[in-house]
Amino acid sequence: MWATVPKLREANMTADLEAPLPAGQEDYAIQCRDVCRSYGKLKVLSNLNLAVPQGHIYGLLGPSGCGKTTLLKCIVGTLKISRGQITVLGKPPAFPGHDVPGRKVGYMPQELALYNEFTISDTLTFFGRIHGLTSKETQARMNFLIDFLDLPQKHSLVRNLSGGQRRRVSLGAALLQNPELLILDEPTVGVDPVLRAKIWQHLVEIVKTGKVSVIITTHYIEEARQANVVGLMRNGCLLAEGPPEAVMKQHSTLERAFLQLCQTSDQISSKRGSSPQGGPLENSQSFESSRDESQPILAVGLAAKDEIPKYTADWKVRARHLLPKWRNIAALMIKTLVRMKRMPFSLCFQFLLPVIQISLICLCVGGDPKGIHVAVVNNETSPSSFSQSLLSFLDNSSVHQVPLSHKDAFEGIYNGEYWGVIGFGKNFTSYLTKRLLYRQVSRDVVDGGSVHVWLDFTNRQIALMLQKKLHEAEYKHFLVQFEEPIYGSQNTDFTTFVTPGAVLSITFYLAVGLTALSFVLERKEGLLDRCWVAGVSSLETMLAHLFSQLFVISVQIILLLLFILLVFKMPNEGSLVLVIILIVLQGVTGISFGLVISSAIDDEQNANQAALGIFYPNLILSGIIWPVECIPYPLRYLSLALPQTYASEALRCIMYRGWGLSQMMVWRGFIVTLGWNTFFLILATVILKLRT
Ligand SMILES: Nc1ncnc2c1ncn2[C@@H]1O[C@H](COP(=O)(O)OP(=O)(O)OP(=O)(O)O)[C@@H](O)[C@H]1O
Questions:
Q1: How far apart are CA 268 and CA 281, in angstroms?
Q2: Where is region (Disordered) located (predicted)?
Q3: CATH 3.40.50 fits 1-103+234-300, yes or no
């Protein structure tokens, strides 16, 4: 059997060239030379050679998992090859100045790769914009495709379509711009036989001009008879390549031919595996043992083995290639806005969430505790006594005084009914007067002329508040006069300290939340790759996300400021413009950080974990809820380097001290924010570029 293979190849090469096959380099739409690609240790493509002649349909057939999709992804350039060379329409994919990826190629990935919130019309309009079609051209193509692919009304939402209908929309998007090269990964799965025949008929029609080439994978082997060339693939190698009639020559169907070739390939492998080096088998089976794996067992006329030249581009073309196209950015931004419009509840939630968060912080964090029950044991009875006068200065809204006997007061505090006991001896007024009049008094006089306070310190904030209120009453009573503070007000509570940092933190984290999943989901659904093949660069994707999320955070920031300044009456002594700029910059930093997560992580769960995982450490270390001065060294250095530490301080300085950019504590916050911003954006673009 084995000895017949070369004969078979020879015979076929000479006799079976029914389809005229090209010979020159430029006559191939796609050429793959010794292409290798692995996923980790799994070698998926090994020394694969394949040539798609210009103006032909190439049917790529093979069992599930043999590497067809991987090969197509390498051809469109979304996967990098580990070794070998690929040219598509004359140049390597993604070569500077080349239109692949771009308008010249129509790619239908195996995943549906459609935006569920889009209508059919939105989908085609979006890809039309990216390809630079006028709205008239898009409309004309849309009408044709809807009719040709038997699609429902163009205003039907993709998420409401059946699986087969979605697949046809996806095919429509690939056909939209009349590309020179169509790369279709299983376009006919789930499509009824009548429409399947229609699609093939259309492909046959468009290649007749000689200007369009198609490479198509399918599981329906027999439908590939309509292709001009078929390639039978197995385990990352091409078993046969040639016109279907030639491949079928010895077998009645393509399926049988394929089965036979698989058996032949298996026998070669097993013989090679069992034959020891230099053994008798090796000598008797010299052809099979030395068979070049990169060559198909059966190759009929497609010996495009000529070397692929090295390509170069001058720096101007390279520079132009790197510059973002506003057309693509606009298309992506419109896409995001349309998606937002289709999810109004989600959008409202995004707008209201920061307001809800800051309102809760202003209402519940940092204020003085109210209505704290304190037992008062006053052994003085005279209404004109100092003890009565001092108690009258105590802030009644915070401290609720309960007059009790000594025994009941201590029973109450031990039972948790009171937060403190305030006690006055029966000679408090006279002893206190003595203390004020005489320099030297006995210990008993000092003791009897003092207010005795026992506190429950299990809640430090309440205990500190009670201490503070008692001191205030004491100061008011005993001549100490606190003048208006230099900065801030005497009634400044902890909320005032927390709010600026909280505003920055909320803006930052909501922006992270908005963007952390954006690429993850789009990558998973194949949308990122699809847009990339349509000609959208990583930088454009990044900028479009940034700009459209800027719209969302702008609304969030306006609402936040309205609430903190007008509803919660936080003071702002400085420039409102500086306040807004700093908050917006923090939002942009959040978006950029979200983009880093999104481009580096493939899976929603991990992306969520990364976003949530840094939330608390960053909040705690940034001096937002507690002063940075409490953080021990060397952790303090880390704290100072974080994006919100200096920024929160700067915002407090602007709002409460009325400082401007000339003060170091203010400009430092801006510089750190801008630095993180730039770093995250560059990092995200680089990661995204490396991964697509
Ligand atoms: N991202 C990935 N990471 C690791 N392995 C992968 C990845 N994608 C594909 N593979 C593996 O590579 C091999 C080839 O996959 P590929 O999708 O190219 O096959 P295929 O021929 O297109 O299969 P099908 O016809 O079922 O779509 C499979 O074993 C698959 O498990």
A1: 12
A2: 268-293
A3: yes
- Does 691 have pLDDT greater than 80? no
Pairwise CA distance, residues 415 & 21, whole Å: 97
Query: Does the beta carbon of 44 lie inside 6 Å of ligand 1?
Result: yes
Contact predicate 425/386, CB 8 Å: no
Fold (topology level) of 372-477? D-Maltodextrin-Binding Protein; domain 2 (3.40.190)
Q: What is the Å distance from ligand 1's center to 295 Cα?
A: 22
Question: Residue 39: how many CB atoms within 10 A of its CB?
Answer: 9
pLDDT tens-digit profile of 513-563? 878 877 778 888 888 889 989 999 888 988 898 898 888 889 999 999 999
Evaluate: CB of 93 within 6 angstroms of ligand 1.
no
Give per-residue pLDDT as tens, 105-127: 999 998 889 999 999 999 999 99
Question: Before 403, cis peptide (omega within 30)?
Answer: no
Residue with CA at minimum distance from ligand 1 atom 10: 39
Considering only CA atoms, which residue is closest to atom 9 of ligand 1?
70
Distance from the alpha carbon of residue 618 to the mean position of ligand 1, in angstroms? 39
> What share of the chain in percent tops pLDDT 90?
37
Is 64 near ligand 1, meaning CB less than 6 Å away?
A: yes
Does residue 633 line the site of ligand 1, with CB under 6 A?
no
Do residues 221 and 59 touch, judged by C-beta distance below 8 A?
A: no
Where do you find CATH 3.40.50 in the chain? 1-103+234-300
Predicted complex ipTM: 0.97
Distance of CA 193 to the CA centre of its chain: 39
Q: Which atom of ligand 1 is nearest to the CA of 71?
A: 18
Q: Which helix (H) or strand (E) holds 377?
A: strand 372-378
pLDDT digits (tens, 9 = 90+) for 421-471: 999 998 899 998 998 888 888 889 989 988 899 999 888 888 888 888 888
Judge if the beta carbon of residue 39 lies within 6 A of ligand 1: yes
**This prediction's pTM:** 0.75
Q: Which residue spans of the chain are classified as CATH 3.40.190?
A: 372-477
